[in-house]
Structure formats: C-alpha cells, structure tokens
Specification:
15% strand; 2 domains; Heat Shock Protein 90
C-alpha cells in the first residue's frame, strides 16, 4: 500500500500547489489553501513583471521595485537587496534595505536585525539558500551566468507560512533582478556612450574645420612668403643695377661731359673760328647733362619700388619733386582732400607716371616752373603735372596717339604713362596749362584696382 502512495517530486510539488493529496476530510481546506497559494503566486509573478520593466528608467528604480514586490508578496517586515563584493562592479545601487515604509542605502543605518543576512549576501552569496536554525529570515540567491552575485533577504510576517512555491517565486525575482540590473546598467552605459560619441564627433568636426582653416592660413602664409622672397630677390637685383648705373655708367657720362666742356673751352681760348663746331660741342655737353639726369631718375625709380607703405603717395611725390632735377626748375607739390591708402602697386604706378611727366618737363620743355597737384575726391583721384615751358599739347596728343597704336619706338614715355593709367581704369589727358605750358591730367576711380600686369 505504501508503495502505491509513493509520489515523484514533480507530483508532490503539484499537490502543494493544488492541495490534492488524499481523499480525506482535509481535501477541501487544502484545496482552498492551494488555490490561495496559486493566486498569490500569480500575483507575485505579476508584481515581478512590473518590477523588472524599470530598466529604461534607472537601476535605482529597478531595485526599489524589486524590494517592494518581495515585501508585498511575503508581507515582510523588512527586505534587503544586496550584491556581493567584486561582482557587477559598475552596477548601482549595490544594496538597498526596505524597513517598514522607509528605504535605506547607507549600510551604517542598517539595524542589527539584518547584520547576519547582510554579511552573508556580501561575502558568501553561495550560502544564501541555507536557512539558519531559528532564523525567521528568508534568503534566496541571485545568479548570473551560473555564478552567485548576491541575493535577497526578507523577514516575513509571523502569520505568513512560507512555502516552497514562495521560495521559488523569490528565487525567480532575485535572478531576474540580477539580469535586469545588469541590462539596466548596459542601457544607461550605452546611452552615456552615445552622448559621449556625439560630443566627440562634434569635437572632431570642429577640429577638422579648425585644421582646414589653419591649413588655408598656412597655404596663404606660404604664398605670401614665396612672394616676399621673390620680391626680395628682385629688389636686390634692382638695387644692384642702380649701384652699377651710379658707380660706373653715370660717372662715365659725367666724364664724357667734362671732356666735351674742356675741349670747347680750349677751342674758345685758341680763337677757333668755327661756330658750328662749338655749337655741336655745346649740344654734346647738353646731351651728356640730360643723360646724367635721366640716369639719376632711373636710379631713383630702381631704388623706390612698389613696396612703399600704403598711403605714402603724397610723401613719395614730395621726394620725387626734389630728386635729381635741374637746379633751374622749381617744382611745387600740393595735396587737396583727405589722403586715402591705396594699394602699393597703384601708388607705384601713379608715382611712375608723375616721374615720367617731371622728366619730360625737365628735359624737353625748357620750363622754369612745374606744379604737381594731387586731389582726393570721394570717388576719384586726380593727379596733374603742369609747367610753364614751350611744349605743345596738340603735338603731344598726336604723338601719344601714334605711339599707343603702332610699334613706333620713339616717345615711349607717353605710351607707358597711358598704359599705366588704363590699368587703373583711369584716363590720361594732355591740355594747355594755366602756367602757359603743358598740363598732364590723370584721373582714376577709387578704390584703385589693376586690370592687367604692369607694363615694362
């Protein structure tokens, strides 16, 4: 008979859940207790499912929901959740105590009633399933990947009879809490990493833009440095040529002029009667004097390039008016309006035009006075060079027309002036001066800009 009543463990667990164990009078009460236990288990599972969906909020909310679910299922006086030392090191919180209606996370505030369970869950989580004799507390362990990682301890109310199913439910709650806590940590860690990734991406983009800007600045600096080195080489070559002209060619021309003057003086003292020869010697002397003045003008132009500081045109005109001109020619310079800073090439071009005009006045017009005027208007700049010489404006206009449209090699000075003014989008006009001679008038728009390369 006893062998017929033997049951398998699964059948015994089913009898515990349903209360069906025998046909005695206790059948119905046990059935009621089994039904209540089954209903309690279902409610507990429902609470567990609600507790474990807090992973999207925070690990703190998750652990609080777990201890409340355990306390509600066991009508517990207190519930302790704890992770073992050295496991899930990044997970927070590592422990939480629900005592009555209050939550404690500072272990120094834990009452003495939970000290033994607290020590076991922290240091010996593999012993969580071993109930101590006379200890009313219930301990269930948490496992993750088959390793003990902590557990849940609870002190049920005195009227609560803890069955195997209650322990099984608590074990499910504990294990799922460990998984959910780990997943919650991973979710929040991923969110933080995503935010850091966005920040790093934005920082990398800013650095890329900064590097691109710095590369552009470096390329521009390299271009300017190359241009500066090239201009330095050209300036050194111009200065070398100027020194050669001053030290050799100019001295040779001066020597030739002195020799001609000596020959003319000796012929006069000897009573030489040929006036034509004396006149030719005088003309040769004048030619050497003009050659010297032209050489000096060229030397000045070579030593004063387009690298003068911006806004220095009035100063440069003052220098030019006193540079290597005949002593019998008086030059005055007047400035009207507020001087504006021009591009160095524009100032250089205007200075070359004024220098060519002064050279023509000194060498071709027999003038005694010359007036250079620079007038700054709001939208234009006017430069005039006037003299009291014997030049004919109509003849000069015809000469300019011929040299500007043909390959005629004479009087290239006028053609060069005209080309420089055209590059500045300006106009060059030749008129009768109020002093009686020729007035050369240059007008350019402001701001001055070049259209082409500078003429030779």
């Amino acid at each position: 008979m006893s062998s017929n009543n033997a049951q398998t463990p699964e059948a015994a667990l089913l009898d515990q859940l349903t209360g069906v164990r025998s046909g005695k009078r206790s059948y119905y009460p046990e059935y009621l207790r089994g039904a209540e236990r089954l209903e309690s288990a279902v409610r507990a599972l429902h609470r567990i499912s609600r507790a474990l969906v807090y992973t999207a909020d925070s690990p703190q909310d998750l652990v609080e929901a777990v201890v409340h679910a355990a306390a509600e299922h066991l009508h517990a006086e207190w519930v302790l959740f704890a992770l073992a030392d050295g496991v899930l090191q990044a997970a927070q919180p590592r422990h939480l105590l629900l005592f009555g209606e209050r939550l404690y996370q500072d272990e120094s505030l834990f009452p003495a009633d939970v000290a033994a369970q607290w020590h076991t869950l922290r240091h010996r989580p593999w012993e969580a399933e071993q109930q101590l004799p006379g200890d009313p507390a219930v301990l269930v362990g948490m496992t993750l990947d088959g390793e003990p990682v902590g557990g849940i301890a609870a002190c049920p109310a005195l009227e609560v009879e803890v069955a195997e199913t209650d322990l099984a439910i608590m074990n499910v709650l504990a294990n799922q809490a460990a998984v959910a806590l780990h997943n919650s940590f991973l979710v929040h860690a991923t969110t933080e990493l995503r935010g850091q990734t966005r920040q790093l991406s934005a920082a990398a983009e800013r650095q890329a833009k900064d590097l691109a800007s710095r590369s552009a600045e470096l390329a521009e600096t390299q271009r300017k440095l190359t241009g500066a080195l090239r201009r330095q080489v050209l300036d050194e070559e111009r200065h070398r040529i100027a020194r050669e002209l001053h030290d050799s060619v100019t001295q040779d021309v001066l020597s030739a002029g002195m020799t001609v003057e000596i020959c003319r003086s000796e012929l006069e003292r000897a009573g030489y009667e040929s006036g034509a020869t004396l006149e030719q010697l005088q003309a040769a002397k004048d030619l050497t004097r003009r050659a010297v003045e032209r050489l000096r003008t060229s030397i000045y132009a070579l030593n004063n390039t387009a690298d003068e500081p911006a806004g220095s045109l009035p100063v440069l005109l003052q220098r030019l008016s006193a540079a290597h001109l005949p002593g019998d020619l008086t030059v005055s310079v007047s400035i009207r309006g507020k001087p504006l800073a021009l591009a160095p090439r524009a100032e250089h071009a205007l200075l070359r035009v004024a220098g060519e005009a002064l050279f023509n006045t000194a060498n071709h017009s027999n003038a005694k006075r010359c007036a250079v005027r620079l007038h700054y208007h709001a939208t234009r700049l006017v430069l005039t060079v006037s003299d009291d010489g014997d030049g004919d404006p109509a003849t000069l206009r015809r000469t300019l027309s011929v040299t500007a449209t043909t390959a005629f090699s004479g009087h290239r000075g006028l053609a060069n002036m005209h080309a420089r003014v055209e590059q500045l989008n300006g106009t060059l006009r030749i008129r009768r001066s109020s002093l009686g001679g020729v007035m050369l008038r240059v007008e350019i728009p402001l701001p001055a800009q070049f259209d082409d390369e500078e003429p030779e």
